[in-house]
Amino acid sequence: MRMAGPPERIVLGLERMRAAMLLLGLSERLPMPVITVAGTNGKGSTVACLETFYRQAGYRVAAYTSPHIWSFNERLRLNGIPAPTSDWDAALKDIAAVAGTLALTFFEITTLAAVKILCAAQVDLAILEVGLGGRLDAVNAFDPDCSVLTTVDLDHQDWLGPDRLSIGREKSGIFRPNVPALYGDAANPCASVLETAAQNQVPLQLLGRDFDFDAQSRRWWGFGQTLAMPKPLWPAAAQWQNLALALATVWFLQTKLPVSEAALSHWSIRPDLPGRAQMLRPWGESGPRLIVDVAHNPQAVAQLATLLAGQGGRCHAVVAMLADKDVAGTLKNLLRCVEVWHVLEITDTPRAASAASLQKCLWEIGAAHVEIEENMQTALDALGAVLTSNDSIVCFGSFHLVKQLPRQWLDGTSV
What we know:
Shape: globular
Structural class: alpha/beta
Number of helices: 15
Radius of gyration: 21 Å
């Protein structure tokens, strides 16, 4: 099968997707309701909440997300279980046979395969997470019944534009005329998102204006309704906002996929989201806490700093990042929290920032103690032996870094 460059290469545009869909007999309108989720941060947790609410209500749910951490199969979950390798192999073989002459990107091929699999599985609902941006992302080739935009902030500026207004225009490209859309930047809505909705007759509902929540009483309200809320995946303001977005989305689709208040008020199935602000004790109760987060842009790391501020003791950071990120703008958000920095180099992608460049960047923004580590295992072994139960190790910066952790740690019990 021809590919438009290596898997790391990003080539935005819908022309190739539409040509492949025509050859494969895939319509823009899928046979089941579709929720499309975009945003700078919060997509993963919003998808996880939506997926769980509908599963608790008895629906068969497909959730397409990216990137994966350990296994490619993670990119599509069918009722909470990664789609089997045999399904992926069959779908990819079909795409190669029918659309193999098209120079599709890795993400386009993956998206087409995932849609073929979920259609064959005859699920009741497809939740599709945008890979990058929105307007020109492969996922946007399929029409949603509801669009969700979590947040708009600086990330991927090389592809989406230099400022928040440009990025907001790209991300709100998932909106459709007369199709409900929900947006979660309550404190500072992006003007270009509001303009896009107004210009295209999109019934946009805003968190903080049209629906809202109270974390203390665990109540959500909007559209003339009040609901009890379950606890979010972890107690951070952003997670309450993502949960509120998910509840609003479910409410807007009630006529197509009814969900009872009982299925929305508590978790009978725990949402699964490895690598997002997980707080673990891999060295036992006498060892330091390990906080794992794939945060890799300024907004996400600012949220991580809020979580760390509530912890006592010393804090060491283990970090690796991609070179095309805003490295300085991201790392500076943790300067007040972190006592010692341990920098690594990601080895499985040419986009990685070198450990030496990360060390230099940290020195330039004011970090006093920065060490280059040989690998993840040696860094964690050393820290786990000297830090105490009141101390923290925060491991963050990229999906590529988090996947170097033992899988059983992230599958373990949070504390």
